[in-house]
Amino acid sequence: MTGPTSDRPLLGSRALVTGGAGALGSVIVDRLVGAGADVVVVDLDGERAATLAASFADSGRVVESVAVDLTDFDAVQEALGAVQTERGIDILVNAAGGGAVAPFAEMDAATWRTQMARNLDSVFHVTRAVLPGMLERGHGRILNIASIAAISGGRLVRNATAYATAKAGVVGLTKSLAIEVADRGVTVNAIAPGAQATPGRDRDTPEQRAALLDQIPTRLLGDPAHLADAILFLVSPAARNVTGVILPLDGGHSI
Ligand SMILES: NC(=O)c1ccc[n+]([C@@H]2O[C@H](COP(=O)([O-])OP(=O)(O)OC[C@H]3O[C@@H](n4cnc5c(N)ncnc54)[C@H](O)[C@@H]3O)[C@@H](O)[C@H]2O)c1
Fold first, then answer.
1. Residue 241: its pLDDT value, please?
2. Does residue 132 sit in helix, strand or coil?
3. Residue-averaged pLDDT of the chain
4. Contact predicate 149/167, CB 8 Å
5. What's the CA gap between 155 and 182, in Å, rounded?
6. What distance in angstroms lies between residue 46's CA and the mean position of ligand 1's atoms?
7. Domains identified in the chain and CATH numbers
8. How many Å is the Cα radius of gyration of the chain?
9. What is the C-alpha separation between 31 and 48, in angstroms, rounded?
10. Alpha-carbon distance 195 to 205, whole Å?
11. Which of 18, 136, 171, 213 allows an S-S link to 96, with CB 3.0 to 4.6 Å?
12. Tens digits of per-residue pLDDT, 36-60?
């Protein structure tokens, strides 16, 4: 198998991206494929994941899709066990997730549990399925997508306490697991994005957009392409001695 080159640092690697059919996930998949990795796109939305995977048919890389609900521990172990029977995963990007807004004083248990399941349990379920193979081979890169909400308490989005709590859990998992596996060839890092220029933001009114930008020192939304660049560095061979990092990509919001 061909090894990494300077313009294709991930040649010979196999990556798995959860939430890979989503706004950020699909940009990350594109960047990893461009860097030479074969990629498994994992998402609840099997149709969008399959369409994305098919779009790389001429890339020269193997891009597959798997549909699974990441909140279901047993389903994840089964689906990702099958994915790893012939070839392991070198790079795991946990990008699935998403917030819900609910004032804390009115929050019901189902909303709380859904946020924990989608944003935190999912990271445990997938990492639990992939990590043993990485440890066995003595090599792995795990990259979690947290949120600036974990650091600044969701000031960019009001009433996101459940989401901020779950993402703070992702930060804790990242640092603790980084220590646990540091001498086994596996790095564990996280990106903490601020507001990104994803299609969801197109619903902002001009007033909402102005209020958002007022809170960001650079007055810029994050560019998903730049987020993918940061991830590419953290999962590349050049970052072999970088672990436990929580990298805010937030235009200075968390300073
Ligand atoms: N977009 C932003 O501004 C922003 C900012 C900070 C953090 N984030 C985080 O980045 C990640 C990606 O966000 P996005 O903007 O691309 O969101 P998105 O909604 O476009 O994509 C999320 C993807 O995760 C998948 N998903 C959700 N629940 C799932 C489940 N139970 N099982 C399997 N797949 C599931 C969805 O189907 C979707 O494809 C999320 O973790 C989000 O919390 C986003």
1. 98
2. helix
3. 96
4. yes
5. 33
6. 14
7. 14-249 (3.40.50.720)
8. 18
9. 18
10. 15
11. 18
12. 999 999 999 999 999 999 999 999 9
